[in-house]
Amino acid sequence: MSLLEIAGLETFYGASQALFSVELDVAEGEVVALMGRNGMGKTTTIRSILALNPARSGTIHFAGRETQAMRPHRIARLGIGLVPEGRRCFPNLTVAENLSAAARPGRWSLAEINGLFPRLAERRDQMARTLSGGEQQMLAIGRALMTNPRLLILDEATEGLAPVIRHDIWTVIRTLKAEGQSILIVDKTLAELLPSTDRCFVLEKGTTVWTGRPADLTPELQDRYLGV
Amino acid sequence: MTISRETAINVTLALILLAMPFLALQLGKPFYVTLATRMAILGLAAVGLNLALGLGGLVSFGHAAFFGVGGYAAGILASHAFAGQPLNLGLFALPGTNQMLVVWSVAVLAGGLLAAAIGVISLRTSGVYFIMITLAFAQMTYYFAISWPAYGGEDGLSITIRNVVPGINTLIPINYFLVCYALLLTALLIFALIRGSRFGAALQASRQNKLRVASIGIAPFRIGLVAFIISGMITALSGALYADLNRFVSPSMLSWHMSGELIIIVVLGGVGRLWGPVAGAMLFVVFEFVLGGLTERWQFFLGLALLAVVLFARGGLVGFLAGRMRHG
């Protein structure tokens, strides 16, 4: 059975409809890419999953539970770890506080995160706002992992980072995949994304228009749905 | 290990406040002992507010409610003890008491219950609505006290003899100062422990962004409510001390002026700083006493000082002296 299953999702921002019919599912241990051009509804879908922008209709099941009526922190507690777009750390807390505030027991502890991102260990007492962009991204990923999520959601985790840092983050993502971590990932660098994913969902104007394995996403399809 | 500048300032403040009454006695000016006690008590009240305001970002304009409820707890229990009549609570009767330890417990409990009731409703709002709704609740308690003739109504309630602590003669001003000072230090310790805990981190995170906190699986409402309750308890305790200091409680302890003064104290001293509220209370009392002796309009100058702090020293007195908060 799927870990996350979304059917017929419709979400509005006030009067304007952002999602029309999103279909998406992630199986246990699977890495799924959510793709599409800017403004097609990728981030809105993620926000709807966590009820940060509750969906108006459609169904969301996570870990066997229907989650639309639940409040965000309840849904997160079922086991969703979000790395939000634009690395939203808590700037007024130290690195260690950012991590420990999120902690729930499981495989990932402070020591494990420090092992995964040695730079965070070096900066543990520094305020998050003083970190570089790449370090903040590491912190955001670390914070999400500290909740020991069943599903990790990465929204544009490598956007706007230096190539070296991107490389590091992709290495971490592949490590997590190898461990069997379920991941839902939004990213624009297809060269890195496609080899790491099991399945892809493509959104266009708030609707799921294509689903398949990355190998089947031909250059024509890429051009049709993702090209600028 | 090097001592940070803020720690040095905190220790200095602690020593100045502790030394003040002893120096006053040496100089033969016992009145200053009362001033120092006033500083410690108002500092304690502001430490309570600082927990909600400084860590949680909950701008409560109703902390006078907790301050006053603590005061009335002391006054009511003492008056019943003095009259030898038990306090009829409907279901059961509670004997009056002049024991401070009991008074404090009742004050803290009452403050906590009131904070829970006010918090459950107020914390569903934020921003200016939170400010207004906490103000509204505090004004309700104010008018309730005014219209309750059994305990003095508008005239307030006198405490004939200051309540007692076993083994300490609280009638001697310096002893009472030390009692208040010890409670202030205890509250500061609690504040420091909370700030350093996971709960404290989550509280400060929720000040920054509630949705982001929710998305890591923490209920911001519950965190805020717990902080608000602890905050109300500390402020209620200080209210009980304040009533015993003046041996008098009146509805003015519950009025919005009091809430405003507590906010001013926290802002003057440094929002979110451990010793900020104490620094603010010391400054406030000095203003009140020195300028209040020169002119009735001393609050004009307090306003100027507040303006200066808000414009030029956002970290308050402690922030101004210690620099920005918590470098790595």
Structural class of chain B, by secondary structure, is: mainly alpha
Determine the CATH topology of chain B.
ABC transporter involved in vitamin B12 uptake, BtuC
Regions with little confidence, pLDDT below 50 for 5+ residues of chain A: none
Query: SSE order of chain A, as H and E?
Result: EEEHEEHEHHHHEHEHEEH
Largest sheet of chain A: 6 strands, mixed
CATH topology of chain A: Rossmann fold
Provide the helix percentage of chain B.
over 70%
User: Quick one: how many beta strands of chain B?
Assistant: 4
Number of strands of chain A: 10
What percentage of residues of chain A falls in helices of 4 or more residues? 25-40%
Please give the radius of gyration of chain B in angstroms: 19 Å
Keywords:
heterodimer; A: six-stranded mixed β-sheet; globular; B: 328 residues; mainly alpha; ABC transporter involved in vitamin B12 uptake, BtuC; two-stranded antiparallel ribbon; two-stranded antiparallel sheet
